[in-house]
User: Which sequence fits this backbone?
């Protein structure tokens, strides 16, 4: 019954029982694994998004298992239909004492939004986080810094949705609410401060690099890229196609190149995607060969500069000291990762604005 070579081998090695056992084990294991794969499917199946011409390697590959795992924060989103006003209601500005931004909301919609803000920003502390422990009569006071900050946050959110529509609704209606950044926390994750110099032992350019920090994306690159590009409007760029035998004033510097790569690493980490989501890797400098996502990212740069300079930095004198930067006492700032949190689209592109027309515009809300 057994093959001849086996009987022969067995006669010559009467005491060796391990050899055949290993052979049978390996063969059996391989067959079982093959059966499992056929029955259950490839466990590491991938899907890829092609971002450039065929054959150029421009595709962003992801495990299907990751794509099919929803961001757990999506479960925290609130569905709460707005009340459609019929025009006869009293407005918040007539009912309350000190309503500077949300004056034209009806009482019902005003309170609906207050409840939502509480859920998004201070679910544990409740209304008291911004209004204190007093009764409703005292809610018009601006005694707590949290309320003053929240008012500016409402304006910032309205401005983002209205004026940066090309970014936050780039593919479809998604929009931004307090939830996009805060996720039920008083202080959103992924905020940042100016932490340079990071190397106290030296000065100048050396002092802002060669240290593993979150702002250098854990590399030796400079830690000041967000400050330089997303607050101070410095020019992002590495090179053009000139040969530079003599370096002239105004020519791109090696420092700019290092800082640019530091920022680009930050972009990639913020979105959880590699460079070819936005660039054709054969010509990073060429804006003719980029992907649509590059355009959206470009708008994002302008949006973040405006958020920081017009809204977040001016709040610097409002926060208590404990909220300010560890090194320079600067205001907490936001950037790509404050919204994106490692996803190509925040909350995987869930439409967060649909129930909150009050936050979608700086003008009067439009109820469909
Ligand atoms: C994250 C901060 C925050 C939380 C939490 C919050 N509010 Fe407010 N509330 C504000 C801000 C900011 C204003 C002023 C809005 C404006 O100026 O347009 C305001 C104004 C009010 C007013 C108007 C008071 C007046 O007389 O002018 C009332 C009433 C109110 N809130 C009720 C509530 C209730 C009830 C809760 C809890 C369910 C709540 N708020 C939770 C920030 C908050
Ligand atoms: C683009 C991101 C972003 C959005 C959207 C956003 N916030 Fe903020 N928020 C921040 C940042 C950054 C801070 C500063 C963090 C700190 O206080 O240390 C902050 C701080 C606050 C604080 C102060 C909290 C504290 O304990 O210091 C309140 C209150 C607040 N936000 C309310 C809101 C409300 C209400 C909305 C929606 C109308 C909102 N935020 C939308 C980014 C955002
Ligand atoms: C989310 C989109 C996005 C991702 C991801 C991204 N970039 Fe960029 N990159 C941009 C945009 C937008 C600019 C142009 C910025 C400007 O000029 O205002 C840019 C500029 C650059 C430049 C400067 C080109 C010049 O003009 O000199 C280089 C180099 C670069 N990126 C390399 C990279 C590398 C390397 C990666 C991966 C680590 C990367 N980028 C990831 C969007 C992206
Ligand atoms: C205020 C929150 C917010 C900030 C800050 C932000 N984004 Fe976005 N971004 C969004 C939203 C929301 C979308 C989804 C738009 C859609 O899919 O319709 C988006 C979409 C994008 C897309 C398009 C993705 C795709 O699948 O087409 C890119 C690229 C992008 N953001 C890059 C950036 C970069 C780079 C920065 C920082 C310079 C940044 N974003 C900052 C909210 C933000």
Assistant:
């Amino acid at each position: 019954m057994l093959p001849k070579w086996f009987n022969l081998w067995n006669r010559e090695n009467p005491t060796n029982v391990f050899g055949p056992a290993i052979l049978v084990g390996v063969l059996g294991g391989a067959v079982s694994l093959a059966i499992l794969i056929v029955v259950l499917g490839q466990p590491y199946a991938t899907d890829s998004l092609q971002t450039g011409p065929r054959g150029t390697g421009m595709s962003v590959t992801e495990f299907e298992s990751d794509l099919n795992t929803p961001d757990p924060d999506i479960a925290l989103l609130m569905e709460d239909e707005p009340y459609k006003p019929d025009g006869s209601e009293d407005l918040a500005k007539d009912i309350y004492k000190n309503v500077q931004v949300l004056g034209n909301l009806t009482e019902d919609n005003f309170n609906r939004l207050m409840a939502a803000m509480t859920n998004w920003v201070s679910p544990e502390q409740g209304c008291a986080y911004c209004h204190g422990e007093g009764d409703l009569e005292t809610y018009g006071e601006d005694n707590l810094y949290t309320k003053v900050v929240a008012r500016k946050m409402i304006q910032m959110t309205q401005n983002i949705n209205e004026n940066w529509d090309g970014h936050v609704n780039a593919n479809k209606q998604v929009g931004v609410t307090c939830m996009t950044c805060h996720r039920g926390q008083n202080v959103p994750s992924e905020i940042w401060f100016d932490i340079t110099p990071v190397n106290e032992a030296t000065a100048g350019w050396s002092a802002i690099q060669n240290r593993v920090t979150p702002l250098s994306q854990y590399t030796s690159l400079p830690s000041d890229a967000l400050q330089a590009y997303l607050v101070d409007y410095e020019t992002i760029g590495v090179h053009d196609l000139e040969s530079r035998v003599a370096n002239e004033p105004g020519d791109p510097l090696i420092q700019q190149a290092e800082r640019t790569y530091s920022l680009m690493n930050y972009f990639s980490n913020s979105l959880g995607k590699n460079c070819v989501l936005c660039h054709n890797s054969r010509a990073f400098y060429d804006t003719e060969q980029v992907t649509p996502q590059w355009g959206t990212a470009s708008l994002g740069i302008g949006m973040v500069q405006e958020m920081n300079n017009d809204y977040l930095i001016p709040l610097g004198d409002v926060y208590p000291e404990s909220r300010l930067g560890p090194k320079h006492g600067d205001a907490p700032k936001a950037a790509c990762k404050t919204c994106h949190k490692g996803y190509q689209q925040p909350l995987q592109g869930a439409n967060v604005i649909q129930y909150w027309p009050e936050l979608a515009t700086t003008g009067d809300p439009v109820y469909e």
In short: The pocket of heme C (ligand 2) is lined by residues 117, 121, 130, 146, 149-150, 153-154, 157, 176, 178, 180-182, 186-188, 191, 312, 319, 323, 332, 334, 338-339 (CB under 6 Å). The chain has a mean pLDDT of 92.
